[in-house]
Each structure stands twice: as structure tokens, then as C-alpha cells.
Amino acid sequence: MKDILEIASKEIGVKEMKGKGNNPRIIQYAKDTGFKNYKSDDSHWCSLFMNWCAHEAGLERSYSLGARSWLRVGMPIDNPELGDVVIFWRVSRESWQGHVGLFNGYSRDGRIYCLGGNQGDQVSSTGKSQDKILGYRRLRPVDDVRFPTKNLKKGSKGIEVKLLQDALKKLGFEVGTTDGDFGPRTEKELIQFQLTNQKLTANGFFDKATRAYMETILSGLISVKSLADKVF
């Protein structure tokens, strides 16, 4: 597995084009990661770049252009190591806006170095205030995921429910302990997952359509607009 920080560092200097036209490298990030609706490097691309780096490193991704979507990915940590994801707020802590990059060390004045895209309109390592940090996340390798083969709903129990709970956790939905008991928490998080695709009925019922969508995302073949464009 490639080192994500090394992958990102090799892209330093990639810069969006001013005026008409786009940097083909940035557009390639979108093509490689399935963001088919991303057409202009004038659009925010910090999360796009992070998804590309994670994809190249074989690590889990957010599948979203929203920087705060990374709060739903990986393991929450308090003491970051080089290459961990760091998420910041912009405008205000309560707004939807944010920024995401890779932790790249501390500066002498107490700021952190963040290596990321769309920093000064380019890939760079920049010092940022710790006051605006929303959280750190450690990404896990993507491995094969087994999916339930049966339709499931609240009250279902057994190994099939465990598979569903593990898949939801891999997607960043906090169902708690994988206990094989389809209770209110599993139902709530399944509904939240279904809400990321307007074509699904958000009813907490794990059916064929929900299974197909989940398999598409976790296999890295996402091409649907709703999740890729959703801002968390």
C-alpha cells in the first residue's frame, strides 16, 4: 500500500488555471475518483484531492466534494500522526463550509502544517490555526466487504445483520457494536445512508436497491450524482 503523504507530496505545485480553461491534472483527479459532474477547477477541490489521494493509497474515502464529509470517514483520533486527515471549519463552526487536508507536522508557533489541495489555489503545505480544527481521522485500508443477501428490517437478527452493521460502519455511519441485532440505532443510520441517494426510499428497510447502491460505493465504482455532490 502506498503512503498517502508521499502521494500527496508528489502533487505539490499542481495549480488551478485562472480565467478560462482548467488544469487537466485536477480534472484527472475527478475522473479517477468517479466525480463525473466535476468539470471546472474553479469549484472547490480540497475534498476532491483528498479522495484522489486516498484512492491512490488504497484507503477509505468520503465519496463527497464536501470537506466536512471526512468527519464520517476513518477512525476519530486525538493525537495525529503524519498523513492523518485533518478537517477544519470555515466561516463558522456551525456552517457547512470547511477544508480538509493531511496532517504534516507542527510549526514553531503552534500551528499545524496541512498538506492539501486548493490551498492558495494549488496543492501545498500550509500552516493553519488549530483553533479551526473540527477533528482528525485515521484512514483504514479498503478490503473486501461482505454484504447481506437477505432483506432486513428492525427486529431482524443474526449474521446478516452483522454484515449490514459492518458495512454501514465502513461507510462512516455509527451503528455502535456489531451485535447482529437490527435495533433503532441501526435503522436510524441506515435511513441516513439511504438519504444520500434520492432514488432510494429512506425507510430503514435494507432491500435490493439499497444493497446495490451500497455495493457500488464500497467497491469504489461510484458514479451516482447524489452522494458525490452531497455536502455533509
Give a short overview.
The chain has seven helices and six strands, in the order H-H-H-E-E-E-E-E-E-H-H-H-H. The protein has helices at residues 4-9, 24-33, 46-57, 159-170, 184-194, 208-218, 225-228; strands at residues 75-77, 85-89, 98-106, 112-116, 124-128, 133-138. The longest helix has 12 residues, at 46-57.
Give the % helix.
Answer: 25-40%
From the helix content, strand content and strand pairing, which structural class follows? alpha+beta
Low-confidence stretches: 221-232
Strand content: 5-15%
Q: How many β-strands, per DSSP? A: 6
Write the element-wise H/E pattern from the N-terminal end onward.
HHHEEEEEEHHHH
Whole-angstrom Rg: 18 Å
Number of H/I helices? 7
**What is the general shape?**
globular
Let me know the largest β-sheet: 6 strands, antiparallel
What is the strand arrangement across the widest sheet? 1-6-2-3-4-5
CA(first)-CA(last) distance: 28 Å
Describe this protein's structure.
The chain has 232 residues and is an alpha+beta fold. It is built from 7 helices and 6 strands, in the order αααββββββαααα. The protein has a 6-stranded antiparallel β-sheet. Helix 2 (24-33) crosses helix 3 (46-57).
